[in-house]
Amino acid sequence: MPEIPAVPQFGVFVPQINTTAAAVIATAQAAEQSGFDSFWVMDHLYAPGAPPLDVPESWILLTAIAAATSTIRLGHLVGANPFRHPSVLAKMAATLDQISGGRLDLGLGWGSVEDEFAMFGIEAGTRRERSERLAETIEILELMFTGRRFDYAGKHFRLRGAWGLPVPPQGRIPIHIGGGGRMLTMPLVAEHADWWNCVAAARGRMPELAPLRGTARISAQYPVGLVHPGEDPAEVRTKLLRRMPESSWGTPLIGTPDQLVEQLLVEWSRGVELFIIRFHDHAPPRTLELFGAKIAAPLRTIADPSSTTGGEAASAEPQPRPENQNP
Which of 8, 90, 150, 227 is the Cys-Cys partner for 144 at CB 3.0 to 4.6 Å? Predict the structure, then answer.
């Protein structure tokens, strides 16, 4: 049995596909108001597997969200490392961390969508080369974030007399590495990550992968169908599986608030500390509020019975608000 974390955290994952920046910003604001700990977007140049659709650029989008929120943490699930040189990435991350007041979590992956690199003319290299480059990127980020001059001589990157200023307000920005590969991803997690983000499709292998993560804390992605009062659970399931098929997203969590509390307690007992939720209905305010009041707050209270905030939130009825137009 893994060590059970003290208090669970909850994030919302909203891939910005076929939507506008304004809609995603509004969803992030609603998530913050509903008590979520973090808000996550994807980092792609297009929507993989879909026809041409609007996909706002992720770093500019997060910067706008940072300016429109005040407490919720922000990040990518996960950043595609081949898109940016490490020194450019470090400058972007430090700047966004300043704008957000120290709220950036830096999600990174070595890049697994081969078609994307070919489509947009990005020389990404082999899978192993991409993994090696991610390791070097994180080493360079660590050096850049100190603000001190340094030299770096790696297999793929070389910097001479470089420095990173401004430095992040956090000092060291937490690193999340996403994936579930034993050979190329988990060694990076064990050596470099503060968090291992277990992608939804790998959750079934969590017992065999978790021991490979070193000291990294566990976050995991979950497709969630929250059944509101009066809704048909079968219709919620159908809608969820149409958007997030089990072949790609693993077993979904579907149910009423009480049922989801029980399901998430099981996941918490497996050592998951940060639950990153992708809702079946695109996370409108009514869903975020219901989840925050009737699922997240009770789970925090179970984990920490001395928490008065969690108990008060658990007893609060969510107030109706206009629907988000994020499709």
Answer: 90
